[in-house]
Specification:
Blueprint lengths: L1 H18 L44 H5 L10 E3 L11 E3 H16 L6 E3 L4 H12 L10 H4 L3 H8 L16 E4 L10 H13 L5 E3 L18 E4 H14 L13 H4 L2 H6 L4 H4 L3
Antiparallel strand pairs: 1-2, 3-4, 4-6, 5-6
Length: 284
């Protein structure tokens, strides 16, 4: 019986030792150890691209009166009276820079065997108002019709006039940058001397700063005026005027003539003032 007693005594001694070796208690005031949260690696997140703002067209300020044609070009020092060798009109005007560029283009055309004749140049608001209102009231027939009788609806009547004539306040001819050359008939430019001249203008006018404003209507120019092979614009000035017009002129400014109420409903600023050929739109 000696060995069992020995085992029993050893167990009692071991139990006493363990009871005196308790682990220290954790203070209630000690904060818990926070869990560690790893930040995601850059490759673990999908970066969302920032939207790129589209800057509006840049332009130099232009007085709104100039944009709307409310000027007297005969008294404006920025305008030059066109010499009679370039036109059969007695008193028409063009902005000085546009005129100087035209003189160079005229000389180059003469060397190529062509004569450029300016039929129309600057037309101010009041002049354009006269053209518009004569058509609006039926004094001037359009397509052989008295539009005041044939088209009593203002929008339809305005649309008929806008095929070739601008509303007052919306014409590029107000700016002193645009000219009509040789004939107001597209058919004249489709054959013979007219066709040869038109081909020369398409190939050479841009080198003098001039661009055909109203080209053939297609997917690149779906709205606006009909094609005008005679209408050429001096873009170094006109491009700035167009951008200034879009940024400055509102439909409330297109007023003071019969039929003005139709302008907004027809998007005249967007579709007609801005409805120019792609080469002119993208002029640099």
């Amino acid at each position: 019986m000696a060995k069992p007693a020995c085992y029993f005594l050893g167990a009692l001694l071991l139990l006493g030792f363990l009871s005196g070796c308790d682990a220290p208690e954790r203070s209630d005031s000690a904060p818990p150890t926070p869990k560690t949260t790893e930040s995601p690696l850059p490759s673990q997140t999908t970066a969302q691209p920032e939207p790129v703002p589209v800057a509006p067209p840049t332009y130099s300020p232009v007085p709104i009166a100039n944009l709307l044609g409310k000027i007297d070009q005969a008294k404006d020092p920025d305008f030059v009276r066109i010499d009679r060798k370039y036109t059969n009109k007695s008193a028409i005007y063009l902005r000085r820079d546009a005129y100087l560029a035209f003189e160079k283009m005229y000389a180059a055309a003469r060397e190529a065997g062509f004569t450029l004749n300016i039929i129309s140049a600057t037309r101010n608001f009041n002049y354009q108002k006269g053209i518009w209102e004569r058509k609006w009231t039926g004094v001037t027939k359009v397509g052989g019709k008295n539009l005041a009788q044939a088209l009593p609806d203002p929008t339809e009547r305005a649309r008929a006039i806008l095929r070739y004539s601008s509303m007052p306040g919306t014409s590029r001819h107000h700016w002193g940058t645009d000219i009509d050359l040789n004939s107001l008939d597209n058919a004249w430019f489709a054959a013979g001397t007219g066709k040869k001249l038109y081909t020369w203008l398409v190939q050479n006018a841009p080198s003098f700063g001039y661009c055909q404003t109203y080209t053939e209507m297609d997917e690149s120019r779906p709205r606006g005026y009909q094609e005008e092979k005679w209408h050429w614009s001096y873009m170094p000035i006109a491009a700035n005027y167009l951008n200034a017009y879009r940024a400055t002129v509102d439909y409330a400014d297109i007023a003071g003539f019969k039929g003005a109420e139709a302008a907004r409903g027809m998007n005249v600023i967007e579709d007609y003032v801005g409805g120019i050929g792609p080469q002119c739109r993208e002029w640099k």
